[in-house]
Write a structure and sequence with these properties.
The protein is mainly alpha-helical. The protein is built from 7 helices and no strands. The radius of gyration is 19 Å and the shape is elongated.
Length: about 190
């Protein structure tokens, strides 16, 4: 009887694996076709960093500031962290993420080099950003999107969001300098408005 139950469980796991693979393929094809009605999940986020030129280019520009490259493969653990960050911003569809990157790109590109310089001066890597000793993970642009939106939110009086802002005073200083160079930021996502 136990062997029969194990066989049934094995069959169910294989069916789930096959169903997940089919969903990942559909998500991949939908992103390639620039579909707009997709939920933001690990499959669609993975497809975006693999196939959407805007995200690939922005990741490359951020890596160039640190004089490094972008990993060739996809680190799903890293993307799961970024997915949680993006959902905390209220970005839950591919369309919302595309729009956020479009709106915040200028500020991301103005902030990142100054922030990386600050981190380099302090020899401070880890919780606030990747090091320049190894390639950035694909999807690093999502981290910087999360960072600049949170900095703008904190500058407007929102509470500091957790341990990744251990050096929030300096981050806010760099953000204020960024605003002087890049101008007023876009509106915050509705989930971030204080």
């Amino acid at each position: 009887m136990l062997a029969g139950v194990l066989e049934l469980v094995d069959y169910e796991f294989m069916a789930l694996r096959d169903e997940l693979a089919q969903y990942e393929e559909r998500a991949d094809n939908a992103v390639k076709a620039e579909a707009t009605d997709l939920p933001l999940d690990l499959a669609t986020l993975t497809a975006l960093v693999k196939h959407e030129s805007k995200f690939v280019e922005l990741d490359s520009e951020l890596a160039a500031f640190a004089k490094t490259g972008v990993q060739s493969g996809v680190d799903t653990d890293y993307l799961e962290q970024r997915l949680a960050d993006l959902r905390n911003l209220g970005l839950d569809t591919v369309t919302a993420l595309r729009l956020a990157i479009k709106n915040w790109e200028v500020h991301i590109l103005a902030f990142a080099p100054s922030w990386m310089d600050y981190l380099d001066e302090r020899d401070f890597y880890g919780s606030m950003g990747p090091t320049d000793e190894e390639p950035f993970a694909a999807g690093v642009s999502f981290y910087y999107l999360w960072l600049v939106i949170n900095l703008e939110s904190v500058s407007k009086g929102a509470p500091v969001p957790g341990s990744r802002f251990d050096d929030s005073r300096e981050a806010l200083r760099v953000w204020e300098e960024t605003l002087e160079r890049a101008g007023m930021p876009p509106e915050l996502p509705s989930a971030m408005e204080s």
